[in-house]
Amino acid sequence: MICAVVRYRLPPSIDRAACRDHFEKIAPGFRDVPGLISKHFICADNGIAGGVYQWKSREAAEAFYSGPWRDGIVERYGMAPEIEFFSVFCVTDNVADEVRVLEPAPAVAAE
């Protein structure tokens, strides 16, 4: 599993309320994105917005970020997004009441 953090600066014409309204409008469109597990739409008080995405693979993430989505970000916000990729080793899911280890440590051979 891969986690991607995407950030961009909102232009002065887009305040918090407008950002929230836009995110609510587009959120359903992410339900059918190949390889996407979840997306958190984020906005900070300093005018930075974006998303925290969980992907099945980095290939799925890169395919999405290199397509029309990227062009839309540049057109709407006037800048290319900053994208950081992270490996996900474990997930604590309090809703499901479970901890999932996605990449366990290698077993240590007994002596």
List the keywords.
111 residues; alpha+beta; Alpha-Beta Plaits; two-stranded antiparallel sheet; 3 helices; 6 strands
Characterise this structure.
- The structure is a single chain.
- The protein has 111 residues and is an alpha+beta fold.
- It has one domain (2-101): Alpha-Beta Plaits (2-Layer Sandwich).
- 26% of the residues lie in helices and 34% in strands.
- It has three helices and six strands.
- The chain has a four-stranded antiparallel beta sheet. Strands 5-6 form a two-stranded antiparallel ribbon.
- Strand 5 (90-93) and strand 6 (98-101) form a beta hairpin.
- It is elongated.
- The mean pLDDT is 94.
Question: What topology does this entry show?
Answer:
Layout: E1 2-9, H1 16-26, E2 36-43, E3 48-55, H2 58-65, H3 68-77, E4 82-87, E5 90-93, E6 98-101
Antiparallel strand pairs: 1-3, 1-4, 2-3, 5-6
Mean of all residue-level pLDDT scores: 94
User: How do the strands of the widest beta sheet line up side by side?
Assistant: 2-3-1-4
Question: Proportion of β residues?
Answer: 25-35%
CATH architecture: 2-Layer Sandwich
Strands, total number? 6
Summarize the helix and strand pattern as letters. EHEEHHEEE
Fill in the CATH topology. Answer: Alpha-Beta Plaits
Please count the helical segments.
Answer: 3
Q: Helicity, in percent?
A: 25-40%
